Amino acid sequence: MKITTIGAGAWGTALSNLLANRGYDVYIYDKNPIYEAINATHHNPLHFSEVELVHSLKFVPVLTDAIADADVVIFSLPSKFYRQMAKEVSSLLNKKVYIVSTAKGFDPLTFKRLSQVLREEIPQAKRYEIVSLLGPSYAEEVIRQKLTCISASSVSLEDASFIQKLFSGPEFRVYTNSDETGAEIAAALKNVIAIASGILLGLGEEENAKAALVTRGIAEIMRFGTAFGARPETFLGLSGIGDLSLTCNSLKSRNCSLGYAIGKADSAEKVLADNTMTVEGVYTSKYVHEIAKEKNIDMPITEAIYQVLFLNARPSDISNQLMLRALKSES
Questions:
Q1: Which residue out of 190, 264, 286, 293 is catalytically annotated?
Q2: For strand 148-153 and strand 131-134, is the pairing parallel, antiparallel, or unpaired?
Q3: At the N or C end, where does the chain have fewer CB atoms within 10 A?
Q4: End-to-end alpha-carbon separation of the chain, Å?
């Protein structure tokens, strides 16, 4: 079986190495030629450079070669590149393939979920149903074969089960979930809450504040998701509270670490100007703010992060405003 991963970043590398270790024929494609070093050294020069990759894992610099005769294509790149890459991949497919989505965000132009983007750009005749691989998982732990559990979400449980079996092993357990909408929304919105968690830490707040944020954050995510037909129980699963807990409790998370820097500076302006990493929560906060406003969904934490990131509000001021809002019932 030939498996091709689009994107040689941390997550793409970790998943590709996992599958190569299972004995599959795995290829990684990326536009950055620096990753060609993988073939010569069996190390990714930009991610986990100290980890020796499975020797059968190959980097392919030409997309045509990477896609030719592939059985599974994994999208592991920032959400803003999904649509264009999906168009390129679609034009090269020569047989029906399984498509796996691993990013956590929305399309920047249409605000659509990433499975919807892939479904729009890759005709059904060329693929099985989209499967989104989501849940609490740091790439640096997966590459070191630390125990991890995630979810394979799809409108087709049959196709989700195929991907479940493909990835699962003694160190990496995959559950299936048919609520594609809920899983993708939870995975995307948790990045916004993770920025908020980092900000609180940067402002000097401690465990009480973080616990409150996670609790109220999942309630906010659930309100948004159920407004689009998601099932409430999805938000209590791996792609919901599981992923949210992970990213809000560690500075390994790009979103949390960005928030921490913003909190320490009590301003987002310079931190964002100096940031060179893709931090999905920044873009997501803008999209969700606009959608929530349009649909009148109460999203106070997301609104607060939007004001900090895009309106130059001081995090300390916004924190006070959140705490001093009109008192209400928890439910």
A1: 190
A2: antiparallel
A3: C
A4: 49
All structural domains of the chain? 2-178 (3.40.50.720), 181-323 (1.10.1040.10)
Instruction: Indicate the length of the chain as a whole number.
Output: 331
User: In angstroms, what CA-CA distances link 260 with 104, 170, 198, 283?
Assistant: 20, 34, 4, 17
Task: Note if 328 is an active site residue.
Answer: no
> Tens digits of per-residue pLDDT, 2-13?
999 999 999 999
CB 259 within 8 A of CB 201: yes
Average pLDDT over residues 120-142: 97
Q: pTM to 2 decimals?
A: 0.95
Instruction: For residue range 218-239, list pLDDT tens digits in order.
Output: 999 999 999 999 999 999 999 9
Strand order in the sheet with 72-75: 58-60, 25-29, 2-6, 72-75, 98-101, 131-134, 148-153, 172-177
